[in-house]
Amino acid sequence: METYNLWENNIPLFDENIKNKENENACQIDAYLVEDEFEEHKIRGAMVILGGGGYDFCSQTEGEKVARWLNFFGVNAFVLRYRTAPYKHPAPLLDAKRAIRYIRYNAEKFSIDPNKVGIIGFSAGGHLAGLVATFFDKFELDEKDEIDKLSAKPNLAVLGYPVVSLSEDYAHQGSAINLVGNDEELKNILSLEKSAHENMPEMFLWHTLEDTAVSAINTLQYGIALKNKNVPYSLHIFNKGPHASILAENIEETKEWSDSLKTVLKNRGFIDKQSYRWL
Question: Any idea what the CATH number is for the domain that residue 50 is in?
């Protein structure tokens, strides 16, 4: 694993007065690259991983675990540390979009297909992944370098037990406050179920009914919104499992979400179908 800075200098919206521990290593990605089984060099798909934390901190719990899982099936993974409170919108969104652009710009270096770059987020990280899928060409600042000229639209977006709404009664209020404060207009704009549109990438959603931290109503309502906008998606709701179940290895049925995603990754060309790991 190696760590890379998304910007070497001139970080957009950087505030030198923000020095809390949660933002010490923000704007960095940890690269988990697949070790080639043989001498031949394979061009692989890639996924950017966004941990949760209610926009109060950027959880690393989901990051490495999911990265290692993706590596096993032949996908290069990049764990992003995005900015959190007291940073507000659009700082986290800028970080996540920069990660996609950075990976595409360095596609040859990382041995990835720039047309197979997805994003996967959990909880508030799922909300951020949804923002990227929705606003990949919005809330942009002036271009600073060649990386900024590339598209930030992911080829696939995966949202696990995501925060979706910032404004409805089932919204995760902590995420809303940390991201936009009391700005009611922004709460509506950044509520994923209210901003879905036809030009979004394919989406993969999953949640559990036992989640008491972020209600599954978020994901159910998002599925309806995507359907109404003709966005291709799959939605998986499971009975068992608390919030932050991650891969749910020890939860019968719920653990099937990862197998379903694995099939999607294979069918969309993120994974080499001939890999011995599929035998």
Answer: 3.40.50.1820
